[in-house]
Amino acid sequence: MVAPLIVFILAFIGWPIIWTMILSFTNMTITGPTATHFQFIGFANYRQLFSSGSGLVQSIFLSLYYLVASAYIGQALFGFALAYLMLSCSMRVRKTVGSIIIICWLVPEIIAAWMWFAMLSDGGTLQQGLHAVGLPYQTWLISHPMISVSLANSWRGVAFSFLLFSAALSDVPAELLDAAKVDGAHTWRRLRSIILPLLATTILIDFVLITLGTLNDFTLIFAMTGGGPGTASNVLSVFMYQQAFSTFQLAYGTAIAVVLLVIGAIFSVIYIRTLRRRGALNFVR
To answer: Which phi and psi (to 5°) does residue 277 adopt?
Structure first.
């Protein structure tokens, strides 16, 4: 019964990954003689990539910064905080806030990127508004590019974590919280000792999904900063694009893609092993 799905995965996911790995060991380019008559050159691309001055270390650091700031803090933490605060609000407030958050999620990524670019760029909406009231403003896309793209990604992506945590919080037994309240447990104690342990599996699942999506994010960053100024926001996905399609070194770019794939796989293995220890994936055995 699962054979058609296995064939689909092998054809559209498995083979591209294998072909990418194969290309990373060649000297294939987009133009020139090696575009069609490329040769295997072993680990030359990886030696060049891991050499000093290649920019790989900076790109990995920026990718991890973007992951922590926009995914773990901006989406998971803020999404949980919103969902938790909505528990004590009226149904009208919940519907209003939820609708606004979902609308942000429905905005196409390229449009969201240009919206934030128009607001944070030099001469943008934020600068004009602050100047109108006599306040100074540094162009955030130049002075703080990673914070800018992290804010934009958090604004658009927080809806997923918000919806996930809202559903999980609604399943927390009310009588358990009431009993803890009667026993004198304050809000923080109920959150730490009851709600967070019950939602641990949901939190890990959210981490798995937003980690993979954020590490592979390209459109929003490229549209807002292009990896700049200089290389200040040159995360791995943008670095890969620049090497493969701007300098036409396709094989070198695929080597960066393999590094990105390995980093994503490491995070996935850690989360999946943690979920399995918690018994959330026992059905796989």
So the answer is: -65, -30
Find out whether 258 and 21 touch, Cβ atoms under 8 Å: yes
Cα dihedral sign for 151, 155, 157, 159? positive
Closest among 8, 2, 23, 51 to 252, alpha carbons compared: 23
**Residues facing residue 40 across a β-bridge:** 26
Q: Domain limits of the chain?
A: 46-284
CA atoms of 284 and 131, how far apart (whole Å): 58
Residue 187, both tokens: 């809000």
Q: What is the architecture, at CATH level 2, of domain 46-284? A: Orthogonal Bundle (1.10)
User: How does DSSP classify residue 29?
Assistant: -
The CA-CA-CA angle for residues 143, 230, 151, to 5°, reads: 45
Residue with tokens 């060649």: 26
CA distance 226 to 239: 10
Non-local CB neighbours of 36 within 8 Å, separated by 6+ positions: none
Tens-digit pLDDT string for the chain (285 aa): 889 888 888 888 888 889 999 999 999 999 889 988 999 999 999 999 999 888 999 999 999 999 999 999 999 999 999 999 998 888 899 899 999 999 999 999 999 999 999 999 888 888 888 888 888 878 888 899 999 999 999 999 999 999 999 999 988 888 888 888 888 878 888 888 889 988 988 999 999 999 989 999 999 999 999 999 999 999 999 999 999 999 999 999 999 999 999 999 999 899 888 888 876 555 444
119 close to 200: Cβ distance less than 8 angstroms: no
Regarding pTM above 0.70, the answer is yes
Of 64, 39, 11, nearest to 267 (Cα)?
A: 64
